[in-house]
Amino acid sequence: MQTVTLKPRMEIMISVEAENISPDRFAGRTEKEIQSLEVWMGNRRTTIGELFSVKVEGEGGSAAADTEIIMEGDFSRVKRIGEGMTAGSIMIKGNVDMHLGAKMSGGKITVAGNADSWAGREMKGGEIIIEGDAGYYLGSGYRGETCGMRGGKITVLGNALDFVGEHMCGGEIVVKGNAGLLPGLSNNGGKIIIGGSTSRPGSEMAKGTIIINGAVDEMMPVYRQEGTEVVDGVTYRKYTGDVVVNGKGLLYVK
Amino acid sequence: MELLIKNGAVYDPINGIKGDKTDISIKNGKIVDKVSSRALVIDAGGRLIMPGGVDAHSHIAGAKVNVGRVMRPEDTRAGIIPRTKITRPYTGYTVPNVYAIGYRYAQMGYTTVFEAAQAIMKARHTHEELEEIPIIDKGALTLFGSNWPTMDYVREKDMDKLAAYVAWGLLASRGFGIKAVNPGGGEMWGFGKNVSGLDDVVPNFDVTPAQIIVSLMKVNEMLGLPHSVHLHCNNLGKPGNYKTTLASMELAKQVKPSKDRQVMHVTHLTFNSWGGTNWGDFESKADEIANFLNNSENVTTDMGQLIFGSATTMTADGPVQYANAKLLHAKWGNGDVELEDASGVVPIFYVKQISIHAIMWAMGLELALLTKDPYKVLLTTDHPNGGPFVNYPEVIALLMSNKKRQEEIKTLNEAVHKRTRIPGIERELDFNDIAIMTRAGSAKVLGLLDTKGHLGAGADADIAIYDIKPDQIDPSVEHAKIKSAFSSAAYTIKGGEVVVKDGQIVATPAGRTFWVDASVPDQHTDIMMKDIRMKFKNYYSINLANYMVEDAYVTHPNVVRAGVIPVTAR
Asked: Could you say which enzyme class this protein belongs to (chain B) (predicted)?
């Protein structure tokens, strides 16, 4: 197992595009090689080594699966961490900016702090755990995309903002706290479980499941009530819809 | 500037050269008989040389292309290449930005591309984009099929006024030829309706699509335009529409060509060779269309080949796009162009396991393989309706290799066996056929043979050299090599300048825009303009003065003269 530890060398004020921070890019590379990988800071091309201190421990071979990345400090202006990763792990002891783990297909990302919007966008597999809060569009499809998250699992221990799992086609999102407006908007598969409260869930849902354990501030008037059903030992009111799109989505509200 | 290309295996169908080692001499952007000893020499080393590619039907510029870009930000993200010292950034796959369009065509060895539909009212937009497309020469066909003045003059049977309107419309739009899209139907879509056949009467105008098509063909030949009428048939996108297509092609017999070319070009046959009566018994009737083509002289077509994966359908056929959006539950862009036409844009994803898509894939290929004369079927994908133009090399490989087709058929929905004839077709096209379908034929159909589509003296020095040696390759077996060679030209030479080397852009000169200046007697124009002024006063939302494309919009023009007055008398 190769462990790579990154720490910011400075307070990062301008956003950084860091899709190169990924076990797939780091695997089998020396400290020097990792330092020379490209990142963009604003409109300036720079390197990982210039922005972060890099420490490599252990031998990992060339497989991403044997690569662990530990990031210590504040990464709240660092975007696209773990984009497209297929295996390995990233542990972030701090906050991160947008597009965390976008399009990832395997491996695991853990954030001890908060993640900004679009975390797990269009992800196909693997796991993301956000111990703090998530921003908007958790596990969604980016602008124009008709399929958001397709597989894998995202767990948020805190709250999430609006549009959780928009255009979701598969996989699972668990938000332990509250979710903002319109979770599961236009989704077409997958499962969303919300521990706390939310509002207007499942609008334009064609397929998929949404389970809400807290309060629903406002229900969309496009769901058909189908009595009650017990899911995992808990009794929920069951709804199907969105009838406007002939949807076969399932909405469970406690 | 002189250039000599030696040792190439040249395919130049117009001049009857089929793979012979022929030297090509270039001086001042033109092909000449010989050059001096100071000429720069390119040694082709036995590799394949063809005239620069010519695409007679592609949607590369204008309002609907831009609607596609706006609707599909996800497509823009699919093809990003950052700028370099030479090239500006590339974006997009089905709806690329203007720069990527020019670069990608040049990288495939194409040097001339025609936008297949512009409404006069939107022509300024078209030309703003055309001017920004680097390297390639281009032009745009102007929509006349549903315009109010067209239908008025057809009803009045006043061919002089119609000719004057067409000539003025080409000037107003800086257009190259007459395009008709679902004639009559585009206008009816403005009232939420459509026409369902050639003899349906368009309400308020009291004309039929058949009358519109025949009148436009007559006027096209009166004016002696370089290209013929370019027709997108009625009923496109409906099962059973092959009958309408055949009936439309039959109309071509009523008109004699004024030049050595067809009188009607029926476009993207993948979308209108459909048999059956509904989506359940949908089948290919491309064989019937090919049979018609084999027994007629006045009609040409193009494939509009379907490519599996992402595509963006865009057309002036507004009603068909409404039906598509409903059927596919897809995003729908709808446009109304006042007194001229309608339009619609819908993204689509073609899937190998969907029977209708698999059958459509077969139709384009059947048409090309069952039609004996390659001059009658051009290679297109109706970019980006059937798929993006960057897939032409895939189509070339499919046409040249039965083995590749059979491998592909194995991955498709089984309907391709029962409802098409493609599994049993063994014909494999050769390099000469491909040169016709992608160059010589397209130039002939467009009426550009004096300068495009061949390598004889006097032609533009637009040349593609591909990294294959025709005498050492079996395209049937080595189809992957064919595809990769046509994807990335070893050299593309545009107007005597090397613009692509080893698949990379090395220079980005501006291309020219071809448009037709057709003359008609002044008195005809004068009477016609009275009607036009009335239309602007009563109906148009803009002023006539803000309508015409001005010279400032076309900064690299190439004007082709035509008209009812002989050129010598002017």
From this structure: oxidoreductase
Distance, CA of B120 to CA of B169 (rounded, Å): 7
Closest CA to A213 of A240, A175, A161: A175
A79 domain residue, yes or no: no
Query: Of A47, A68, A89, which one is at a domain's C-terminal end?
Result: A68
A103 and A63 in a common domain? no
User: Is residue A226, in this structure, part of any structural domain at all?
Assistant: yes
pLDDT in tens, B211-236: 999 999 999 999 999 999 999 999 99
Inside any domain, residue A84: no
User: Are A64 and A103 part of one and the same domain?
Assistant: no
Q: Determine, for residues A143 and B74 on separate chains, whether the beta-carbon distance falls below 8 Å.
A: yes
Cβ(B359)–Cβ(B283) under 8 Å?
Answer: yes
Q: What is the pLDDT of residue B187?
A: 84
pLDDT of B565 reads 64
ipTM above 0.85, yes or no: no
Q: What gap in Å lies between CA A247 and CA B302, rounded to an integer?
A: 40
pLDDT tens track, chain A, 254 positions: 899 999 999 999 999 999 999 999 999 999 999 999 999 999 999 999 999 999 999 886 789 999 999 999 999 999 999 999 999 999 999 999 999 999 999 999 999 999 999 999 999 999 999 999 999 999 999 999 999 999 999 999 999 999 999 999 999 999 999 999 999 999 999 999 999 999 999 999 999 999 999 999 999 999 999 999 999 999 999 999 999 999 999 999 99
Same domain, A131 and A224: yes
Termini Cα distance of chain A: 45
Domain boundary residue, one of A22, A51, A68: A68
Are both A64 and A102 inside the same structural domain? no
Residues A111 and A51 in one domain: no
Contacting residues of B for A245, CB less than 8 Å apart: 329
Q: A166 and A57: one domain?
A: no
Write out the residue range of the structural domain in which residue A121 sits: 98-253
CA dihedral B231, B235, B239, B245 (to 10 degrees): -40
Other Cβ atoms closer than 10 A to A252 = 21
Cα dist from B130 to B101, B141, B294, whole Å:
10, 12, 36
Residue range B9-28: average pLDDT? 96
Say which amino acid occupies A250.
Answer: L
Per-residue pLDDT band for B566 (boundaries 50, 70, 90) equals: low
Interface of B with A (CB under 8 A): 71-77, 329
Contact flag B74-A145 (C-beta cutoff 8 Å): yes
Say yes or no: A2 and A106 in one domain: no
Count of the separate structural domains present in chain A: 2
A128/A149 Cα distance (integer angstroms): 12
For residues A239 and A113, membership in a common domain is answered with yes
Task: Say if CB B421 and CB B366 are below 8 A apart.
Answer: yes
> Is the residue at A34 inside a domain?
yes
Which burial class, exposed, middle or buried, applies to B191 when counting CB atoms under 10 A from its CB (0-12, 13-18, 19+)?
exposed
Inter-chain touch B73–A144, beta carbons under 8 Å: yes
Q: Which residues 138-177 of A are in CB contact (within 8 Å) with B?
A: 141-146
B236: its two tokens: 């496109």
Q: Which chain B residues are closer than 8 Å to A141 by Cβ?
A: 74
Collapsed DSSP state (helix, strand, coil) of residue B281? coil
Q: B36-48: string of b/e by CB count within 10 Å (b at 16+)?
A: eeebeebebeebb
* Least confident span in A55-59, B23-27, B361-365: A55-59
Cβ neighbours of A34 (radius 10 Å): 22
